[in-house]
Amino acid sequence: MDLFIPSRVFFEPGALEYPLGRQLYDLMESKGIPIRITPSHNRVLGIPGDTPQIAYREAKRTLVVGVKKTLKLNTCRPSADYEFALGTSCPGGCQYCYLATTLGRKPYIRIYVNVDEILAAVEAYIEKHHPDITHFEAASTSDPLAVEHLTGSLQKTIAFFGRQEYGRLRVVSKFANVDDLLDLNHRGHTKFRFSINSAFAINTFEAKTPSLTERLGAAGKMAAAGYPLGFIIAPLFLYEDWQADYRQLLEDLAAWIQPHQPSSLSFELISHRFTARAKKIILERFPQTKLKMEEGSRKLKWGKYGYGKYVYPPDQLETLKNWFTQEINRLFPKAEIEYFT
Ligand code: SF4
Predict the structure, then answer these.
(1) Residue 227 in contact with residue 188, Cβ under 8 Å?
(2) Which of 33, 103, 192, 287 has the fewest CB atoms within 10 Å of its CB?
């Protein structure tokens, strides 16, 4: 799959005071990509699109380069202690993407250039919790690997965590351009997970993302480079042939594991859920979507931020959990299932 090159780029003036900001400016200028200045990376005017579909499509072709000002970190359960952001959104076109709905009607791709300041904030959290080991998630608000060929920020971050005795990094991605990460001195401090799904889910809902074969190819390279490895199967969908499709996925994965033998292997399992706002936005963007979002067949669960999510009802969640636990234990007896949600 081709690496992402934006159709237009907006820079915050402050971003040009950082080496990465200037480097990106020069790169975009050399490629003849239209450049504009935006007073704030939070409010970007001038992305075309007078229908929801075009606004979404054009936003996903737009890069915004800014400075991360808030360096206070949020907690990130169940996958880590804290999360930090190297950017937001990604060029992928997954219909169910919660980022694409929480970031509003124009989920443009944002890159932060003050990576050293972000990592200094991370270091302060590590020191605060020392001698306990603190785990950080770097992909809750973006897929940083999708823009790594432009930023190099993940390389810098992985190398930083390689130097930390008491900090560990977790990254998740659907992208496959890992070659620049293979020779880093990561010391096993970065756990890399690949997000995968059944062939039906990938083909139906995950536009503009690498194929399963490409993701597994990247996972093989990361395993060979000694990274602790995991797979996130998300979102888990219940549909007519879900058991046959997910069994095929797990059996393909088991066949893939044989020659690669990662030093450790884990799974994270996340069932599909949606909010009322997400449903509205998804239906505007993808009027023909095959995503099933019928409130009547779900259970409303209130989250800590005061809005409700429609999750599968308890008996269906139990079925999903039991089935995946049994199949993963059968095919990957040494793997750990970190959580099911
Ligand atoms: Fe969203 Fe991840 Fe898909 Fe990008 S790859 S659109 S972040 S779900």
Answers:
(1) yes
(2) 287
Given a contact cutoff of 8 angstroms between Cβ atoms, the answer to whether 234 and 269 are in contact is yes
How many Å apart are CA 63 and CA 65, to the nearest integer? 7
Please tell me the distance from the alpha carbon of residue 73 to that of residue 123, in angstroms, as a whole number.
11
> For the segment 175-218, what is each residue's pLDDT rounded down to a tens digit?
999 999 999 999 999 999 999 999 999 999 999 999 999 999 99
What's the pLDDT tens digit per position in 78-102? 889 999 999 999 999 999 999 988 8
Ligand 1 pocket member 197 (CB < 6 A): no
To test ligand 1's pocket by mutation, which of 61, 94, 108 has the most ligand atoms within 8 angstroms of CB? 94
pTM of the prediction?
0.95
> Which atom in ligand 1 lies closest to the alpha carbon of residue 209?
5
